[in-house]
Structure formats: structure tokens, C-alpha cells
Specification:
Elements: E1 23-24, E2 41-45, E3 52-53, E4 60-62, E5 67-72, E6 77-82, E7 87-89, E8 95-96, E9 101-105, E10 112-115, E11 136-143, E12 148-155, E13 169-170, E14 177-182, E15 187-193, E16 198-207, E17 211-218, E18 228-233, E19 238-241, E20 247-252, E21 255-266, H1 272-278, E22 286-288, E23 296-300, E24 307-311, E25 317-322, E26 328-332, E27 339-346, E28 352-359
Parallel strand pairs: 12-15
Antiparallel strand pairs: 1-10, 2-9, 3-8, 4-10, 5-6, 6-7, 11-12, 11-17, 13-15, 14-15, 14-16, 16-21, 17-20, 18-19, 18-21, 22-23, 23-26, 24-25, 24-27, 27-28
Amino acid sequence: WDVNVTGKPLTVDVTGPLTQQSISLPVTYTTTTSGATHDGWNLVGNPYASQIDWQSSNWTKSNISTTIYIFNPSTGNFATYNTATSTGTNGGTRYIASGQAFFVKATASSPVLTAVEGVKATSAATFFGKSSAENQLTIKLTDANGNIDESIIAFNGNATDKYDEGQDAYKLLGQNVHLATIAVDADLSVNNLPMLDKTTIPVLAGTETAGRLTFSFAGISTFPVGTKIMLEDKVAGTQTEVSTSATYSYTAATGVDKSRFKLTVYNPDGSATTAAKTATTSTGVHVYPNPIAGSAFFIEGFEAGSTIQITDLLGKTVSADVVGSGSRHEVRMNTVQSGIYTVISTDKSGARSVTKLVKE
């Protein structure tokens, strides 16, 4: 349950036996006419008299996204934390306080979310700190009253320019300042992308109170030396190079603007271009069955001498083979845990086909 209290301070006393052992949180999957961004949302709560760890392997999560969303009334924004990439925005961490409500997103029918004693944690459930990561830029937008919203862009070889389940986080608009980056199919608070020679990312920025807004940035040092990131203001006609010390201020009217700003990231290593561009397209390679319920899948359409690589969501290689001639290649997955993987087929010229694979 949740309560919205206005007016005078109110003290709520809760009595009864403490919740212990296995708890199945009530989650459902509902569809709307507005598309996947609006489907499957559930508001649940920490059922224990203890903080809990969203990153714990003791959870049972079936058809549940890896990101949690917690509304912070003091800032008017949503804090997020993604277990697959260990990244958070607006102070979100892996720990959830006792009695705290949080949103999760079901990704398909018959979702399951079950907590057991093993998800309890002794670490303080406060909104501070983030895990370090490579090629990750944190962007903040602050108004004159100190209200802040935060967004993250990151680059890895398993990402696409769309919403990537298990890597990205949707944007939920708060009450004061609004900041997100715009993917092909959704507005995102965490946006993982493939690294190209040049990557242009539209930015959503806005406020509920007209006035001065300021961009600031962190994480430039996580990119390769020579990486250049530019913030363009189309209205003012300016380009600002992003750095840890750089800020950019402008005057905004009330509302959300999706067309004024864009970020452009220039990769100093031109060799990334071919691989990254083909990562979001198809070269005729076909993977089946997908999802797989058994111990193997098949890949067709590859050229002789191609390399077939399987990676997990963190980019770790779990399998790699050089295949000879033939119309079909079998890949065994019997020693690999259930989850989301990336199948990368690279031919002799360096052209790649990247396919998401789900092992049930």
C-alpha cells in the first residue's frame, strides 16, 4: 500500500508480527495502447524490517526488468538502479530501505518476484555512491532552487540505439527538473549505446518552474584519451565542449523540450566504426530458437571462417568459436545460466551481426 499525506505531520504506527522467510511480491503484466514504455509497471514494497539488496542472487526474478525506480519526494525525481550494469541515477543504489516502496517493470506475462531471507542486507540503504564504470558520462540538470535531475549515457559493444532490456532504464518524469536522453524507441534515464566514430544523442530537458537551468557533467575520465564530447544548444546556436569542470546554463520556459539539445561523442579510435555500426543492423545471420529452453541453439547465414562469440550483459565472453564452411553451426549453452546474452558473428572482413539471445 502507499499513502500520500498532506498538511500537518502524521505519525503512523504499524503493529503485528514481522514478515519473514519467502515473500512473493504481487506483480502483474498489463499492456496498454501506448506501447512497451507504459506496459508492466508495478509498485511494490520492501516487505522486511531490514534493508534489502536488489543485487542479491537470492531473488527469484522471472520476466522482471533489472532496474528499480524509487521516487524521492525531497527532489521530486526518481532514483534508479540497474543490477546488470551496477549503475544508478539520482542517488539510486542496490539497497532498498525497510518499508520503502519501489517500482519494477514486468517484461512479459506471468512475472514472478520473490524475496527470501538471503536478500536482507546490513549495508545502509542510503542514496549515495555509484559503481565505477568505463565509457560512462553522468549528466546533471540543476535549477535555481537546487533541484536536480540526472541521466547517464554509457558505451559498450553489446548495446543498441534502442531500449536494451537488462542495460537501460526508462525515464519517469518527476515534479521539478526533467533530464533524459532520447533513444529510438524511448526516453531513458540510463542509456547504453554502441561506440561509433561519432554518436549523436538527443537530450530531453525541462522544468516545471520557468527559470535558469544548468548542465554539469561527471565521468569524462572514464573515456579513452582523446574522446571529445560536445553539447549543442540549437536555440542559442552554441557548442560547448563537455568536461568535468564545464557547465552550461540557459533560460527555460515551463515544460519539456526534446529538440533543443543534443550531445555528440567523438571516438578517438576510428577502428570502432565498422564494428559498432553493424552492431545495430543485420547481415543475414539467423539465430534460433530464441528464446532457448534447452541446452543449445543454432546459427545460420554466416560466412566460412567467421568467429561466433557469446557474451553476457557485462560484456564477458562465455563462448567463442571460429566456424568453417557449412550452412548451420550449433552452439552449446548447457553450462551457461539463464539470462540475456549477445551473439556476435564477425566475418573475415570485420563486419559483425549482433543478436540478443534469451536463455530461459
